[in-house]
Amino acid sequence: MKHLRPLLAVIVALVVIAAIGWYVWDRNTGGLPEGFATGNGRIEADQIDIATKVPGRIAEIRASEGELVQPGDVLAVMDTRELEAQLARARADTARAASQVEEIRALIAQRRAERALADEEFTRASRLAERGVNSQAVADQQKTRLATAEAALNAALAQLNTAERGVEAANALVVQYEAQVADATLTAPVLGRVLYRLAQPGEVLGGGGKVITLLDLSQVYMEMFLPADQAMRTGLGSEARIRLDSIPYAIPAYVSFVSPEAQFTPKQVETAAEREKLMFRVKVRLPQELVEAYIEQVKTGLRGVAYIRLAAGEDLPWPEEFVGQPIPADALPAN
Q1: In degrees to the nearest 10, what's the CA dihedral of 142, 148, 150, 154?
Q2: How far apart, in whole angstroms, are the C-alpha atoms of residue 119 and residue 31?
Q3: Which range is least confidently modeled, 131-140, 153-162, 170-179, 312-321?
Q4: How many C-beta neighbours within 10 Å does residue 130 have?
Q5: d(Cα 265, Cα 203) in Å, to the nearest integer?
Q6: What are the distances in angstroms from CA 252 to CA 168, 191, 196, 292?
Q7: CB–CB of 319/241 below 8 Å?
Q8: Selection from 51, 164, 20 nearest residue 97 by Cα
Q9: 284 in Cβ contact with 221 (< 8 Å)
Q10: Number of C-beta neighbours around residue 85 at 10 A
Q11: How many whole angstroms separate alpha carbon 147 and alpha carbon 129?
């Protein structure tokens, strides 16, 4: 029996080495066959801060924390009484500038008539002076009168140009105040859920003051990291599956982003071997129609595993033993 002990020790060592090797391979590949890639992550969505553009007092906040909002829904309204007064004054200035333009145009018509009359009288006086009926002094006086009429006309034309620029400036101020009044109504830019209310009605905020933080549900995704050999075979739009720890189904998804540069993986990656590698960040996005169909169940922070079918495995079926059962067809939204 003693001579069998070394042999048994060698066999046990080989089994242990094989088990360790299988464990490392399984942790790095998820046990998937060639043609698939996997990585752990959590469901994420970007956060959007809804903030004021101009300083002011909050008049009303219409959204509550946890509320689902659609694009264009009014979230908060700022007090616009001061802005509306400035807008009314700007509109009055515009009307006054327009009246000045009309007055100057009437003056120009008068100056043109005076110039035409002076031109006729100068022509007549010049002819009479040539025939000796009038003296040359009379012709010179009419010439001076003509020059004066031309100068007055040119001055009126210059005034018109200045007045028209004044109207444009007044209109620009009206547009500015109208935009500020419109910006005082804070609306949801995307489909989302109110995450935080950061201010209350009556508070005075400066420009850029945050009122609400919105969770953007127009793009729900899981972020994972792949080594270079798998990232090179992962194209945008590649078919993917997500299996969450709390849901028994495989959720259909697709690759929406592959980082163009490598990076060291973050601490969330669990094995020391992977943390030593340069990896590529990949986003696996849930289809928007699926998100909207289950909008009340969408929660960020849920952990799970994402599976990607690589370019070389486009014809391979999804392995049920790893991914799990797909979402039943009757649970999917209608096309």
Answers
A1: 180
A2: 101
A3: 131-140
A4: 11
A5: 43
A6: 56, 21, 30, 14
A7: no
A8: 164
A9: yes
A10: 11
A11: 19
